[in-house]
Amino acid sequence: MWELIRANKRNSIILMAIMAAVLLLLGFVIGLSFFGAEGGFFGLIIATVIWLVLTLISFSNGDKILLAASKAKLVTHDVHPQLFNIVEEMKIAAGLPAMPKIYIINDPAPNAFATGRNPKSASVAVTAGLLARLNRDELQGVIAHEISHILHRDILFVTLAGVMLGSIVLLSQVFLRGMFYSSMMGSGRRYSSGGRGGGQAQIVMLVIAIVVAILAPIMAYLLYFALSRKREYLADAGGARLTRYPEGLASALEKIANDPSPQLAAANKVTAPMYIANPFKKKKQRKLSDLTSTHPPISERVRILRNMTHGASFKDYSNAFAKVTHTKTVIPPTALTKENIALREAESKTKKGRRTKKQMRQIGDIMRKVNQFVFLTCLCGLKLKIPPNFKPKKVACPRCKRTLDLPAS
Questions:
Q1: Is the pLDDT assigned to residue 53 strictly greater than 80?
Q2: What gap in Å lies between CA 318 and CA 316, rounded to an integer?
Q3: Is 300 noted as a catalytic residue in this protein?
Q4: How far from chain centre, in Å, is Cα 41?
Q5: What is the mean pLDDT of the segment spanning 236-264?
Q6: Are 235 and 150 in contact (CB under 8 A)?
Q7: Packing angle, helices 136-151 and 81-94, rounded to 10
Q8: Which pLDDT tens digit goes with each residue over 268-326?
Q9: Contact 122, 115 (CB under 8 A)
Q10: What's the whole-model pTM score?
């Protein structure tokens, strides 16, 4: 496992260095186009300052910002005891030093992600839709996948990579919009001053800067997405290893892919790679090529997991990956040890139809608990759900007309 983490960190540093080079090159070329030879150094300094400020913010509060942007709410054990039990099981199986904080996103679209600076201060967020649609084995597979992201030290890197991507996009957009507004106001005449040769050279630099400003975000997106796809494969392998039941994660991915719910409302291009599955609508996802997709194809991930018929080790995942994709495995060679991890049987025995119907009814209650509704059960058996903004201290049962006292907040 430590070999895998070490290789993961090494590859992360390489890709982060490439993204940093793209960011600094963008700043240098923009400064050069505006202020000449001395302006390149000035642009380089500005780009570096922007990156350092945003990186410091991401180190200190990056996870909180991402959770707030996703509208995730911290919950207690009472909201969903099964979820807490599964997270605790996977925390013990992975040997994490601390229990991750658990958040629920009030959204019917099934999805999940993990964030945090390190395994000691990690968080796992799941949507209410995910809890309502998955059985215990499937939910365990998803949580194991997210715990693997924490174990592999992906969570901080994805945050930092997202910040760097945001910096590149910010610089590019500011420059391009500035050029647009300046051209609209007729300030482009300055490029013809200072002699014919100097004016032409400045125009050439301006054209180069525009090309770099357009291509830099595209290159950064490709690097970010390629990095995210590889980490999804590694987390799938880790999730299967922790649960010893690859079918649970495979089935969960199928349900997430085929779910008819609308697009996850809080998702955006920067946070999308954090999720276990692409949070954007499937119609949009099909229009994108494999290079610009934030995640590997779910159908391929499912086939790999279901080809793990002999065991749940990294070696078994590597063999299944090679069989399905016909390409070199994403698992580092040092992680392919001779460990034998036997597959286990499914734990969930409830009939599928009955379970699905019951869980779909529970999604409303889960969302209400997240939003701090008060649940009261009358003597007649009717269950009342009182919103948090309800002012009176008593409420009448609509069935038997009994008066019920609301608990003190």
A1: yes
A2: 5
A3: no
A4: 35
A5: 93
A6: no
A7: 40
A8: 776 777 899 988 865 444 444 444 566 788 999 999 999 999 999 999 999 999 999 99
A9: yes
A10: 0.79
Cα of 235 vs its chain's centroid, Å:
12
Q: Give the strand pairing for 403-405 and 112-116.
A: unpaired
β-bridge mates for residue 11, sequence order: none
Helix 154-184 / helix 136-151 crossing angle, nearest 10 deg: 80
Q: Which residue has the tokens 């993961």?
A: 8
Residue 104: both structure tokens together: 């629920």
- Determine the pLDDT at residue 389: 83
The residue type of 260 is P
Model confidence at 347: pLDDT above 90: no
Query: What angle in degrees, to the nearest 10, is found between the helix axes of 246-258 and 196-243?
Result: 130
Look up residue 53 and give its two tokens: 């400020």
Quick one: tokens of 318? 């590597």
| Mean pLDDT along residues 52-70 | 81
Instruction: Calculate the average pLDDT of the chain.
Output: 81
**Stretch 76-87: mean pLDDT, rounded?**
91
Instruction: Compute the CA torsion angle 244, 247, 252, 256 (nearest 10 deg).
Output: 140
Give yes or no for a contact between 305 and 239, defined as CB atoms under 8 angstroms apart: no
Q: Are 402 and 379 in contact (CB under 8 A)?
A: yes
Higher pLDDT pick, 132 / 226: 132
The pairing of beta strand 72-74 with beta strand 101-105: antiparallel
Q: Which residues contact 359 (CB under 8 A, 6 or more apart)?
A: 131, 132, 133, 134, 135
pLDDT of residue 100: 96
d(CA 45, CA 16): 18
**What number of residues does the chain have?**
409
Q: Which of 3, 89, 146, 232 is catalytic?
A: 146
| Per-residue confidence band for 199, with pLDDT thresholds at 50, 70 and 90 | low
